[in-house]
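User: Here's a structure from my thesis project, written as structure tokens. My advisor, Dr. K., wants to see whether a designed sequence matches the one we expressed. Can you design one independently, without my sequence as a hint?
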């Protein structure tokens, strides 16, 4: 049975970052789900169980016997192990896309100390501005193919609590006992792609910005299908 692609957006942005690539995957005959993780920052810590529940709820429409391939972009990479552990569906592999890598055991900090130092001055009453407001216009503009796509992504972004980035996410043992691979877009994630290669994962490179799945959704979909089919 062909796996269902489950495209996981970073909780810092929203599901619209994956929808163009999802359409290309679907057009190629793949089953695709794009769960919304927009409520990940609601309530009080810990926040990661809300992500697991959101994915479980979304996959109620997928038969439990159907394998799933989890595809995690950016910060969602840290959530992949707990999501995998919380699903009833058999693993069909995992693809990390310009993503943070979880620890192999123990727990993963959502943000290292230097990133928390960068974020804390931005917080107002414990909440951060939208992710695209963290950066200069010169950094953000190239990530979007046109103004309409940019407006959709920007308007849907949550304003997460600083506490979201201060949490540690548990890492269930054996989470990477199924095929894992890495798709690199942007230079800042080159070191993580190298680490993935050192772990024995297959690594592919589609040069672009951090949201390159919006700029080249067709190329992204082809790479995801290729990485998911390699065993």
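Assistant: Designed independently from the structure alone:
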């Amino acid at each position: 049975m062909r796996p269902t692609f489950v495209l996981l957006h970073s909780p810092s942005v929203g599901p619209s970052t994956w929808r163009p690539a999802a359409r290309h995957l679907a057009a190629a005959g793949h089953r695709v789900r794009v769960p919304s993780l927009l409520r990940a920052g609601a309530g009080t810590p810990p926040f990661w169980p809300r992500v697991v529940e959101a994915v479980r709820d979304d996959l109620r429409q997928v038969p439990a016997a159907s394998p799933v391939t989890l595809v995690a972009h950016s910060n969602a990479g840290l959530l992949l192990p707990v999501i995998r552990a919380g699903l009833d569906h058999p693993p069909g592999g995992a693809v990390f896309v310009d993503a943070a890598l979880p620890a192999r055991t123990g727990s993963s900090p959502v943000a290292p100390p230097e990133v928390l130092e960068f974020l804390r001055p931005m917080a107002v009453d414990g909440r951060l501005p939208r992710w695209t407001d963290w950066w200069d216009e010169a950094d953000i503009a190239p990530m979007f193919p046109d103004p309409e796509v940019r407006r959709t992504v920007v308007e849907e972004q949550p304003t997460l609590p600083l506490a979201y980035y201060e949490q540690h996410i548990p890492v269930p043992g054996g989470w990477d006992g199924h095929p894992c691979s890495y798709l690199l877009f942007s230079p800042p994630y080159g070191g993580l792609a190298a680490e993935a290669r050192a772990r024995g994962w297959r690594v592919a490179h589609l040069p672009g910005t951090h949201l390159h799945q919006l700029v080249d959704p067709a190329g992204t979909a082809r790479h995801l299908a290729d990485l998911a089919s390699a065993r």
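When you compare it with your expressed construct, this may help: The chain is about 35% helix and 15% strand.
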